[in-house]
Amino acid sequence: MKGIIKGLITVTKHMFRKPVTVQYPEEPIPWHTKRFRGRVILNLDSCIGCTLCAQICPNHADHMVHYEYENGKNWRKIYPAVDIGVCTYCGLCQEICPTGSIRLSNEFELAHFDRDMDYLPDRLSRTETELKYHD
Ligand code: SF4
Ligand code: SF4
Question: What's the CATH number of domain 33-134, 1.25.40.10, 3.30.70.3270, 3.20.20.150, 3.20.20.370?
Answer without folding.
Answer: 3.30.70.3270
